[in-house]
Amino acid sequence: MKHLCRTIVFCALLIITSLAYSQTSGNPGGYPSYTINQGATIVLHANADRASAYQWDKDGNEIAGAVKKDYTANSAGLYSVVALNNAGCPSNMSNAVRVIVNSVVKPDTAVDLQISIQSTNTHVQLGDSFDYLLTANNNSQINGTNVEVSYIIPSNLVYVPQITSNGTVTYDITTRKLTWSISTLAENVPTKLVITVKALTPGVVKSTVDIKGKELDPIMANNIDQTVQQVYPLVIPNIFTPNGDGVNDKFVIPGLETYSDTELTIMNRWGNTIYQKTNYQNDWDGQGMVEGTYFYVLKAKNKAGVWDVYKGYITLLRTRI
Fold first, then answer.
1. Is 3.40.190.10 the CATH number for 239-316?
2. What's the alpha-carbon Rg for the chain, to the nearest Å?
3. Which residues of 116-135 are buried (b: 16+ CB within 10 A; e: fewer)?
4. Which of 29, 57, 174, 193 is the most exposed place for a label (fewest CB within 10 A)?
5. What are the residues facing 209 on neighbouring strands?
6. pLDDT digits (tens, 9 = 90+) for 296-316
């Protein structure tokens, strides 16, 4: 038996084509690669001395009934073959080749879907509610069906459900996935959805949406979009009461410590500067100022090295209530 098993010493795999193919440039995964169009075939040919049978494999699994010298492949995968002699002794597995199948998309069945997302608020502070505008479009000449837009709500936002008339919106609180379903998306009729969210924590919020449908999509580059929203940490109060009761006696701006450099300017109603401080430490108590409304300009350098500018008013009250 040992003698018989030595009669097969080599099994090589060659390529013969029954329909046109192309040899792919490069060598993905270290394997020779051949590309055929969807619906075409390629004939794989085993070349071995003194072989009486063969066993073809695809992706490491035996192909049932594939025991002849030639095998006709019509699906993508890694193919290899073992040759057997009259005694059933196998050769070593041949080197594999990769078959790649190109999808052929007919123009009258393809739907090019496109999605975009943008924030409607350029300056969001901690605790603010704001909207994202999603726009779904069909760039093709036939209707898109079973269209689905997905958006994973970032962890530093909370979703605020709204009533919509454009499709159906569902939200999974566990996965934080919002799904916008549109049964039919007509050609070049942009369909919009407003999503309301609330900022929970400061920082950069990255929001990504994607779109898919029932039909094949020939252009995948526009099936995903992303926008970045900055949530500023400062919520500046508009009243403080420096009356000596130990409560709200100073002009305190929560979150100011997250900025590396600050500059605060307080002005009266005539525009005269009555207080100015670099690297403000939440310690202005309005000393010497009468009750009334004052105006502030706060400059704060964020972690990106950019100066954020806040402008508003502050009311000073000393009357004990």
1. no
2. 34
3. bbebeeeebbbeeebebebb
4. 174
5. 151, 225
6. 999 998 776 788 889 999 999
